[in-house]
C-alpha cells in the first residue's frame, strides 16, 4: 500500500514563490487522492502489487485495457508529485552546476535559452499537465510535456526536472497567470536534486 511521502520542508518554506495554502492542499488533498485511488486499483489486482511504481508506468501499454487509465492516472499522479516535491527547495534557484549545468549549456545553447524553452513547454501545455527535462532513449537531454498525469517513463525517458502546471498547483495565488507562476518557480528549483537524477 502506498503512503503519502512527507515533504522535505514545511508548507510555507517556498513562500513567496509557492504559497503555503497551495502546498498544503496540493500535498494533503491532491497527491493523497492519487495514492488512495492507486491503492484501490491495486487491491483488485494483486498481480500488480509487487511491481514498483516506475515499473507500473513503464509497463502501462501492456496492462489490460480496463486498468490502463486508472493506473496511468493514479500511479502517474503519485510518481509525478513525489518527484515534484523534491524538485523544489527553499534554498534553490540560480543555475545548475556540475554535470547537469554543463550538459544544459551545451545542448540548449546556454542556460538562459534552456530556461526560455522549458518555460514555453510549460506555458503551452494546453489544459493540465507537466513540463519535463528528460534524458531521452538516445541519451540526449530533451524538453517535453505530458498531458494530465502522463509519465515520461512509458516512452523510455528518464526525468531530470519537472514542473506541475495543473491549475491546482498555482490557482490560489496566481489565478490564470501561469506565466508568473513559472517565472517565480525558477527561484525554488532544487538543482542539486536534478543533478542527482542525472548521475543516478
Ligand atoms: Mn499537482
Task: Tell me what the structure shows.
The protein has 200 residues and is mainly α. It has 2 domains: 20-86, Helix Hairpins, CATH 1.10.287; 98-199, Iron/manganese superoxide dismutase, C-terminal domain (minor pseudopilin epsh fold, 3-Layer(bab) Sandwich). The chain has 8 helices and 3 strands; from the N terminus they run H-H-H-H-H-E-E-E-H-H-H. Strands 2-1-3 form a 3-stranded antiparallel sheet, sandwiched between helices. It is globular and about 45 Å long. Manganese (II) ion is lined by residues 26, 30, 81, 164, 166, 168-169.
Class from helix and strand fractions: mainly alpha
Name the quaternary structure.
single chain
Helix content range: 40-55%
Measured by DSSP, the beta-strand proportion falls in 5-15%
Query: Which molecules are bound besides the chains?
Result: manganese (II) ion
Quick overview:
With 200 residues, the chain is mostly helical.
Keywords:
binds manganese (II) ion, minor pseudopilin epsh fold, mainly alpha, Helix Hairpins, 8 helices, 2 domains, 200 residues, single chain
